Amino acid sequence: MSIQSSTVSRRLTALCCGEAARHSTIACRKMFTMSSTDELNRNLCELDAEFDRVMRARGFDPAQAENIALPSHLAELYAEREKIRAQIEESKGKTND
Q1: Structural domain count, the chain
Q2: Confidence (pLDDT) at 5
Q3: Rounded to whole angstroms, how far apart are CA atoms 10 and 4?
Q4: Is the pTM of this model over 0.85?
Q5: Residue 52 to residue 70: CA distance in whole angstroms
Q6: How far apart are CA 87 and CA 94, in angstroms?
């Protein structure tokens, strides 16, 4: 991994996970028990950052993900992200009832 892609990856993680991610990836982990939605949001944040990093490393624009055929690893990351997003929406629906 080059210094530039490492910097971009850290920036994406910081934007996604907030101030704690700027210090280290371990800082993203909370010391108290998280609700399932918090855990899902954290997982989604990490997957989003990894997906963006891998897309850019392969020369793709992450905004094109829905319009192009993805290599298998990227397709797996994309599917996992969509699954987590659906779980978050489902849990929001349960709390709104």
Answers
A1: 1
A2: 52
A3: 10
A4: no
A5: 13
A6: 11
